[in-house]
Amino acid sequence: MTSRIIAIAVDCRDAEALARFWCQALGYPSTRRWTDAYGREYVEAGAPGATSLVFQPVDDRKSGKNRLHLDIAPSSGSRDEEVQRLLALGARRLGDDPKVPWVVLADPDGNEFCVLPERGADDGTAP
């Protein structure tokens, strides 16, 4: 027996706003919401065949570097065009090292992620 990833949970201050950003960034068409036994409302962003992102509200602000981050790539167009699109949606640029093929951004809640050049579905090269 093995396990599979069904969602990636993201701590955030405003689950609704962050879900909206990531739905626009990834083209996810839907969100669903639920409330836990403590009254916290979670927002899940998803698309058929894609791993969901679950935004869970927390009181504390992000501090330090993420231990886990997303690497994303445009489905069409260039990496730089995608970076510009994400910046217009509310992301912030954190790093742009010309020696590596990715650009480091932060989402509106400060969570780091990387934008890589477009890849084919079977491209097994690592960043």
From TrEMBL:
InterPro entries according to UniProt: Glyas_Bleomycin-R_OHBP_Dase (IPR029068), Glyoxalase_6 (IPR041581)
SUPFAM superfamilies: Glyoxalase/Bleomycin resistance protein/Dihydroxybiphenyl dioxygenase
Glyoxalase-like domain location: 8-116
Superkingdom as given in the UniProt entry: Bacteria
Gene3D superfamilies named in the record: 2,3-Dihydroxybiphenyl 1,2-Dioxygenase, domain 1
Protein name, as recorded: Glyoxalase-like domain-containing protein
